[in-house]
Amino acid sequence: MNKCKIPILLVLLLLLAGLPTAVQAAGRPIVTLQVKGVINPFSARYLERGLRLAEQRGAQAVIITLDTPGGLESAMREMVQALLGAPVPTVVYVAPRGARATSAGMFVLLAGDVAAMAPATHVGAAHPVPLGADISDVMEQKVTSDAAALVRSVATTRGRNAEWAEQAVRENLSVTAAEALELGVIDLLAENLDDLLRQLDGREVAGTTLRTIGASVQAQPMNLSERFFHVITEPNIAYLLLSLGTLLLLAELADPGLSVAGVGAVVAYIVAFVALGSLPVNWASIALLALSVVFFVVGLLTDTEVIVSIAGLVPFVLGSLLLFVPFTPTSPATPTVRVSPWLIAVMAISIVGFVFLVLRAILIAGRRPPQAGAQRLIGRRGVALTDLTPGGQVRVELGDWSAVAVAGEIRAGDPVRVTGIAGVRLQVTPVEADPEGLPQVSEEV
């Protein structure tokens, strides 16, 4: 009798020992992150921060919702390393419908402990091609082989179809979510997050049995700084900041002095170059854009604004079109990015119109004689009301003014000419003592 009770007691003890673990797993939260748009260093920092927070909160898993055309190769490698060394189980989920995980996104998807996709999504990579110039076959082969070795290593580590992953790099392959599941590229096909959590429940991932049904889901969005820098790395936003800096720079040159326009130009350029540092930039196009600014400035400060400014449009438009078209082969992890032609057209018209209509008007107004205050009297003729020895009174344009003689002897009734302003007094000289080259402006009665 006692011998029969011993196995039963052992079974009960084992069940009781496992009960706290099951309860604990069910009570641990699920942390969700969202990576959307071009992958850049700020995406990598966001992922790393999210994984640290998940560990601190005792999360049982982290779900990364992914929708990206690709991004900077260095940032992609940081994200892959973070996922491979994550302290908690990770699930990379391509969603919602219509989302994609191409180029760098494919590497990130394959690096998760669990790879999942929503219906009507796709995954793949782009074979690197030389853009704008011929390159050697050896260089192109090196770039492709490096990316192929990385994706093969990641896929093998996670037990996925490494052969297809390598072909996706070398042969520009892309497949739908259903095809990816059939090929063994991903593990799950889930309609939405709730469906994904249902399928994950009871699944053993990285030595942990997930209890996702009923678990608390804690969304961890990007913080303000991560969101700001992620937004500015959108190609059109980066280009817009660069163009805005050019407009403000031209405004500052039209009216020199540390003004709002000057400070704004510096800020716009700094933020723009921070954004460009996370994108595949053709720096020769930056030189073309700088050349266009030189043309605009020359046209602004001379009487050849029409010819020179129109000539400046050529390097401006060409530099804009080539801004994200590097002359060297790019990694398969790098997406194809470009500036909208409509945005280029709008900015070109805006800059030329700004130069012709606004800045030119400012320059012309600055060259005119003052139209108000004592400054407007410089060059005008008047008559001395008293002897100027050297101070006295003069009448100019029907107004009586305190004046001081700066040359010659002036008696009451002598004609004088205003040559300058000293505080609240006019500086005058007798008409016969006018310095050579002084503008001859007739007295107005």
Plain-language structure description:
With 445 residues, this protein is α/β, with parallel strands linked by helices. It has three domains: 17-223, Alpha-Beta Complex (2-enoyl-CoA Hydratase, Chain A, domain 1); 234-367; 374-433, OB fold (Dihydrolipoamide Acetyltransferase, E2P) (Beta Barrel), CATH 2.40.50.140. Helices cover 49% and strands 16% of the residues. The protein contains 14 helices and 16 strands. The strands form four sheets. It has a six-stranded parallel sheet, covered by helices on one side. It has a five-stranded mixed barrel with strand order 12-13-14-16-15. A three-stranded mixed sheet has the order 4-6-7. Strand 15 (415-422) and strand 16 (425-430) form a beta hairpin. Helix 2 (41-56) runs antiparallel to helix 9 (224-232). The chain starts with a helix and ends in a 15-residue tail after the last strand.
